[in-house]
Amino acid sequence: SAVISQKPSRDICQRGTSLTIQCQVDSQVTMMFWYRQQPGQSLTLIATANQGSEATYESGFVIDKFPISRPNLTFSTLTVSNMSPEDSSIYLCSVAWVGRSYEQYFGPGTRLTVT
Amino acid sequence: GENVEQHPSTLSVQEGDSAVIKCTYSDSASNYFPWYKQELGKRPQLIIDIRSNVGEKKDQRIAVTLNKTAKHFSLHITETQPEDSAVYFCAASTGTYKYIFGTGTRLKVLA
Predict the structure, then answer these.
(1) Contacts of A44 in chain B (CB under 8 A)
(2) A41 shares contact with chain B (CB less than 8 Å)
(3) Using one digit for the tens of pLDDT, what is the confidence trace for A47-73?
(4) Which pLDDT score is estimated for B55?
(5) Is the dihedral of CA B64, B69, B72, B76 positive or negative?
(6) A42–B43 C-beta distance less than 8 A
(7) In chain A, what residues touch B42 (CB-CB under 8 Å)?
(8) β-strand partners of A48
């Protein structure tokens, strides 16, 4: 596996603002993903972060709301734009290595509260 | 689209007893089934997984079984301990590295 960190670990934001969450891995990974976990709920995939190209978004998630960057094989960012209280969730990144099973490993998460 | 149902949503067992959590998937192309344990305030941790070419896999006190015909897979925890208390999530993947997660089971092990 790898050491995966996220910044910030938590934040309280006002509605209408944006927050950028960073995911850093201590080794190169093939794939990086972003998930949302609403309070007491399961994990929902937002998008796959593709290095050097636009992210692949799942149904119900759009680039204007959740822009994602992945400039290299160890780093990705997720921005939550124009936030509303409904965006209050835990946001997690996960990583995987193509050709090394299908295992995914999660970062510690970012707990976002929108007031 | 792909759907994964998980039961029960909550499960209480006495310490030392066994716990079983069941999941059903809809996409017959699914070929990889991981289980994650999430303690309160922590990240999900991969605890065991199984591929579609295997019927059962064990790792100490935990085991996973897969019935491809019925599209069921289950997590079995034997000799439960208080530290097994957590939320458990199953997931299914068609091999694209994209996971569909179940709704989660909150397991409480009573001392």
Answers:
(1) 101
(2) yes
(3) 999 888 899 999 999 999 999 999 999
(4) 92
(5) negative
(6) no
(7) 108
(8) A33, A56
Among left, alpha and beta (phi > 0; psi -120 to 50; other), residue B82 is: alpha
Q: How far is CA A7 from CA A21, A81, A93, A109, B62, in A?
A: 6, 16, 11, 8, 33
Q: How confident is the model at residue B46 (pLDDT cuts 50, 70, 90)?
A: very high
Per-residue pLDDT averaged across B81-96, rounded? Answer: 94
The residue behind tokens 């509605």 is A15
- Which residues of chain B are within 8 Å of residue A42 when distances are taken between CB atoms? 89, 101-104
pLDDT values of chain A reduced to their tens digit, one per residue, 115 residues: 689 999 999 999 999 999 999 999 999 999 999 999 999 999 999 999 988 889 999 999 999 999 999 999 999 999 999 999 999 999 999 999 887 788 999 999 999 999 9
Q: How far is B3 from chain A (nearest CA, A)?
A: 12
User: Is residue B105 less than 8 Å (CB to CB) from chain A?
Assistant: no
Phi, psi of B24 (to 5 degrees): -130, 135
Tally C-beta pairs within 8 A across A and B. 47
